[in-house]
Amino acid sequence: MNLSMKGIVKSFGANDVLKAVDFHLNEGEICALLGENGAGKSTLMNILGGVLPADRGTIELDGTPVAFANPAQSLGAGIAFIHQELNLINDLPVYENMFIGREIKKKSGFLDHAAMYQQTKALFEQMELDIDPGAMVSSLDASFKQIVEIARALMMNASIIIMDEPTTSLTDPEIERVFDMLRTLKAQKVGVVFISHKLREVMEICDRYTVLRDGVMVADGYVKDTTIADIARDMVGHEVRTGGKAGGAKLGEEVLRLEGLTQEPHFRDVHLSVRAGEVVGVTGLLGDGRSELFRTVFGAQGRYQGQIYMHGKPVMVASTQQALALGIGYVPRNRKENGIIKDMNILENGTIVTLPKLTRRGLIDRKRQHEQFDVQRRELRIKMERETDGITSLSGGNQQKVVLAKWLSARPSLLILDNPTQGVDVGAKEEIYEIILRLAAQGVAVIVLCSEAQEIIRLCDRALVMYHGSVRSEVSGETMNEHEMMRLATGG
Amino acid sequence: MKTNEKNQTLLQKAVVQWKTNPLFSTACVLVLMIILQTLALGFDFESFGAWFSHWTRNWINILRNNASVGIVALGMTFVIISGGIDLAVGSTLVAVGAVLMVCINSYPDGLFTSMGITGLPVYVIGIAACLLMGCALGGVSGFLIAKQKLPAFIATLGMMKICRSVTQQVMQTQGVKVPSDFLAIANTKIGGQVVLPIIYWLILAVVLHIISRRTTFGRHVYAIGSNERTARLSGVNVEKVTALVYVLCGLMVSIAAIIQVARIGSMDYANAGSGYEMDAIAAVVVGGTSMSGGKGSILGTVLGMLIIAVMNNLLNLMGVPPFLREAFKGFIVIAAVLLQKKEKNA
Are residues A232 and A285 located together in one domain of the fold? Predict the structure, then answer.
């Protein structure tokens, strides 16, 4: 089946996400859909999958115009969307998962297990898959789960399969297994849209590619006619972004050193040294292991191999309390889940880390609590009405400043920031950058985890690029540019 | 759109409070019930003095009868705010009560004097053992929940079964002899009335209120109940605080046990404390504490306990058959939570 999307327009309020995008997919073709976060890939595929309606534009299947009001209609037309989070029920066997929602029943109304098992087995044999239909899904590894989802799509007669970053959580042999499946699909005339950030994989498996940037299709063509470097440049755009960090900062003693830090399957053999006053970036794609790495350094991720040194002394960090005592501060990603306590007020959110220091004879000294927070409020310019208001009454940027405030009051010698400007508007972003640079100037060692190249360039003296849990390379000065970081992060 | 606070009438203010402050609506319900109860007692202006002493006696009865479970509910409040639940409180009560009885019985009165200590009644050993046992049993639940990551429901359900069963087996041959000076702990009259259990309840409520509001431990309990991950990432020792919450609850249970034994002079190992877990949870919930943790207050629990107690009294005064009273209890729990839910959406 040939797919053709023409002039697709989609806006969310004043935000134009797709500006007349065209997208084509031929029968039995694997086409990569590429672009940075926010480029519009997911929106485009959600329109194709019937999850979102398009504002304008047409979708044609084999030349016939179609419109999908919901995912069921899209699926009925032969388009299956396999999301990043798999939709399988772990505690049911494979064959029951294959028929979930459209189970085969006997006349008596009971499930016809034998028929479902047989049909699943027949399909697996046809696809040359070595999976026991009776196995529990929970016993399968991630790649086989992915394959079961693909097989389920085929059982529903899908002729186009959309896969959203299917390899993010897979290991190399597992990726190869999924690729084998994709080759089989191709031979059976099924078309695949392959959304991915990993250009090396795109070069290996895809026939064609389409690049979106800021809601516009900026490039498409055959994979055999291009290179990773070209695609990376298309994804980032040509404009050179300025505004890097003013160099020449005076660095102090070493604060943190990691030697061969490993925690399978998240990261392995990481070496790093950060000095006082230095801002070190760590970047890569989703699932590169950087968050897990630094959660480990903060004592929130469990056991590890290798050695952590603080101020030159070997230390063991087994809990967040130990990390706190060692002078490590940590601003986590996903503020709502990890950063704020929604039932507590601004003051309490901003002082929870230092609460034990604010007590006198066992009771919290409210005056000192207020004074300590007020210093940070002025320093960080937190905009708020009363400190007894709920934390959720603040804007994202101000919430993030409160999270920063709770750590700054603890006067850490090492501050780890994971995605510090997530969900923060442009103005507040710049303020947070200034705060981070000021801290470094005061002699704090800072580690910034971020996937936005501009942010790394703006803040960091140097940056590590991670890929699949390993540090691929270190960039600084000339080499710290978007193209180079994108190339390294995509495994090129 | 905020209306100017100064221009609001008293009624408007009350409506805002009703919608936003669970304590206010709980208090309103309580006042309403007290008015009903006053009417049911046959309020008569002409013989006010006689009516008033009748009313007071009735109230002292209500409070005294609920002091034990009221104290258990204080501990339960901490547990529920931390996001957990403790089903073992009723069985823990008989277990620690048994420890108290054994200690009181097995130490001869002359023990302290032979050791040269005077002026100390021998039953303090029993009290100390009882308090320690309560902390220890709470500690076991806490360990299972915080360290072994068992769901609180399962861990305390297990403890509930174990505590009562073992106590009944061990205590079936034990004689009961409670010294009269021990009974004085709860029965000494003040102003001609037996009010000591009420005073203990009040003191503990104040202490626990301060702990919940003004100590690091108290605030950490709220933080864990609201968002355990953030609490951990803010350097809170989640395991320790969680375990301590159950130890505190166990301590409250043993105080309740001491008062109960001292009040009655005996303990029925099969039935004492049975249903306490549900009564305590009901009081906590009616008092506006969220079962999902993070929100609630000691004051709310005291009000919640009073609402249930006054309602019981009211049903009694109105001659509602005893079998039906539990149904009213169930009704008020459901109504209270529905009321609080509505506020959240408003």
Answer: no
**Domain endpoint, select from A236, A265, A300:** A236
Q: Report the alpha-carbon distance of residue A96 to residue A93 in Å, rounded.
A: 6
> A321 at the B interface (CB within 8 A)?
yes
Listed by start position, the domains of chain B span: 66-315+322-332
**A29 near A207, Cβ under 8 Å?**
yes
Rounded mean pLDDT, B46-65: 87
A364 with B215: Cβ contact below 8 A: yes
**B-chain residues near A338 (CB < 8 A):** 229-230, 233
Residue A111 domain-assigned (yes or no) = no
What is the model's pLDDT at position A246? 53
**Is the residue at A76 inside a domain?**
yes
| Position A243 in a domain | no
- The stretch B207-235 carries a mean pLDDT of 95
What is B66-315+322-332's CATH number, 1.10.3470, 1.10.287, 1.20.120, 1.10.10? 1.10.3470
**CA torsion sign, A206 to A212 to A216 to A218?**
negative
Its pTM stands at 0.80
* A463 and A330 inside one domain: yes
Indicate which of A296, A335, A344, A402 best probes the interface with B, i.e. most B CBs within 10 Å of its own CB.
Answer: A344
A256-259's contacts with Cβ under 8 Å and 24+ in sequence apart are A256/A297, A256/A308, A256/A309, A256/A310, A256/A414, A256/A445, A256/A447, A257/A308, A257/A309, A257/A312, A258/A297, A258/A306, A258/A307, A258/A308, A258/A309, A259/A306, A259/A307, A259/A308, A259/A309
State which residue of chain B sits closest to A363, comparing Cα positions. B215
Banded model confidence at residue B1, pLDDT cuts 50, 70, 90: very low
**A403: nearest CA partner in chain B:** B234
Domain that holds residue A206: 3-91+136-236
pLDDT of amino acid B54: 85
Tell me what ipTM this predicted complex has. 0.84
* Contact assignment for A298 to B229 by CB distance below 8 Å: no
Are B227 and A359 inside 8 Å of each other by CB? Answer: no
For residues A326 and A426, state if they share a domain: yes
A322 touches chain B (CB under 8 A): no
Q: Name every chain A residue with its beta carbon within 8 A of the beta carbon of B232.
A: 300, 320
Stretch A146-151: mean pLDDT, rounded?
A: 88
For testing the chain A interface, which of B20, B234, B238 should be mutated: the one with the most A CBs within 10 Å?
B234
Q: What is the CATH number of the domain that holds A170?
A: 3.40.50.300
- Domain tally, chain A: 2
- Residues of A in Cβ contact (< 8 Å) with B230: 332, 337-341
Average pLDDT score over residue span B180-191: 86
In tens, the pLDDT along A219-253 reads 999 999 998 888 888 887 754 444 555 555 578 89
Please state whether the peptide bond connecting residue A265 to the residue before it is cis, i.e. omega within 30 degrees of 0: yes
In a domain, A113, yes or no: no
- Identify the pLDDT of residue B49: 82
